[in-house]
Amino acid sequence: EKKKIFEFGIPKYDPKWIKELIKFEKKIIKKNKFIITIPYKSFFNIYPDKKDFLENYFSRMINGILDNNQNCIILIKLHPRLKCEYTKVMILNLKKKFKNRIILTKTNLIYLAKISNLFLCPTNTATIFDSIYFKTPTLQYDVGIKFLDGKENYNNVYERKKISIIFKDLALLNKNINNLISKKIDLRFKYQ
Fold first, then answer.
1. CA separation for the pair 135, 29 (Å, rounded)
2. CA distance linking residue 177 with residue 171, whole number of Å
3. Residue 99 to residue 76: CA distance in whole angstroms
């Protein structure tokens, strides 16, 4: 007996649907800028006793990118269900330092993936699929969970399949960003 398969809902990566999504987005393309999008997932609510570690990690990452690359701007998209005021305060403090080089946005991730030069997302997130669809180079940051609870809680399947690179230290992040800016593309990105 044949099983019936019912499809319903909007196929997220259907070209017609993507065209509809993008046409309603506010255009935020910055000419001659290297655009990095960070779909930010907060861990402050999960590890409230590790706020200093988490804030220091994220701040060092942002400072390292923007201090070393004057042509970069960072678009930060908070998770839509994020209810963490501490995260918003942390990002607003970074915005004070870097002014218009950090943009907190509610823009659809599909559009952000399309206009970005780099997608920088945490491990264990589905947002990576948006960047893969548009062949946007993608780096995943290991938030240092093993330092928080003593074990590594991420799946490195995307790295094993050569779809993404997981960096575990900020020097590797900056090396990859510098290579992308200078058009020295890591061969792993060609598989995206």
1. 17
2. 10
3. 13
C-alpha radius of gyration, the chain, whole number = 17
Query: Does the pLDDT value for residue 1 go beyond 70?
Result: no
The partner residues of 102 in beta bridges, in order of sequence, read 74
Confidence of residue 37 (pLDDT cuts 50, 70, 90): very high
Alpha carbons 130 and 177: distance in angstroms, whole number: 19
Encode pLDDT of 146-160 as tens digits: 556 555 556 677 777
Give DSSP secondary structure letters for 146-173. HHHHSS-----HHHHTTS-EEESSHHHH
pLDDT digits (tens, 9 = 90+) for 8-34: 777 788 888 888 888 877 676 667 889
Instruction: Label residue 182 by pLDDT band (50, 70, 90).
Output: confident
Tally Cβ neighbours within 10 Å of residue 133. Answer: 15
pLDDT at 149: 59
For the record, the structure tokens of 59 come out as 């701040």
> First CA to last CA across the chain, in angstroms?
38
The answer to whether 68 and 174 have CB atoms below 8 angstroms apart is yes
State the Cα angle at 127 between 124 and 128, rounded to 5°. Answer: 75
Q: Which amino acid is at 51?
A: K
In contact, 161 and 132? CB cutoff 8 Å: no
